[in-house]
Amino acid sequence: METRKPIxxxxxxxxxxxxxxxxINECLDAATITQQLPDTIAAxxxxxxxxxxxxAVAAMVFAAVKERxxxxxxxxxxxxxxGYYGSMPAVYDKGAWATPLGDAAIDAExxxxxxxxxxxxxxxxxHAGEHSMEVQVPFIQYLFPNxxxxxxxxxxxxxxxxxxxxxxxxxxxxxxRKIVCIGSTxxxxxxxxxxxxxxxxxxxxLRWAMEVNDRKFIDYAVKMQPEKMLExxxxxxxxxxxxxxxxxxxxxxxxxKTEGILLAHxxxxxxxxxxxxxxxxxxxxxxxxxx
Length: 291
Prior knowledge:
Helices cover 40% and strands 18% of the residues. It has helices at residues 17-30, 51-68, 108-116, 137-143, 158-172, 203-222, 226-236, 242-254, 268-276, and strands at 3-4, 43-46, 74-79, 90-91, 96-99, 102-105, 121-122, 148-153, 179-184, 189-190, 261-267, 283-290. The chain starts with a strand and ends with a strand.
């Protein structure tokens, strides 16, 4: 069986099982949900930075799913394409993904259906260096130990919307299993380090990045407008995984959802200030959204 080995264990999240579980519990403890949850959850958008910075935000989505669905059979994970330049969404379609918590099996049946639709291709090698999906898998393994996964690396473009629609329609036609879609994106990467400083530097600029630039993307996501999500990301550089988020919104629409719920929105600078009492000249935005 082909098994993808973890590439950011020990960096983005702990590399040892016990430490990994301890940090998952810390993230879940910090993931306080105050919003009224819908009766069912079909999908969610999560960040993918190191758990120290965005783990609690990501945990909110998985905790919300767990609150509404004790068992999930498969999580489709749409990932950002940080180093993949193909035009077609790339499916990891067989074997398993290893993490410090063990192996998460790939849903090969669902993978085959997606590939047969013509909206994505089988390309496990494309996933070798991508972290945006990997950092979600231990949360799934801990909360839903029997769940399978289907990682789909999703570059920005119309094809991301189409593959989301196809995945949503396949799920809608499956009456036997509970399948949840997850899209992985961070928001505005602001500051000299990222080469993006349209409002200059300093506290006001970082506040603009979060309150104005991030919100443009979040608002379109909550309204479930995938085309607008792609457009604003291209124009305003306010998401690094817009294809993944657009795919999730498109899938959720196929599953009868009409709006998203924003559970949390923060950035790395706010986390630094709260956790460590320090600040940075840069910030990366994080949001938790469910559908």
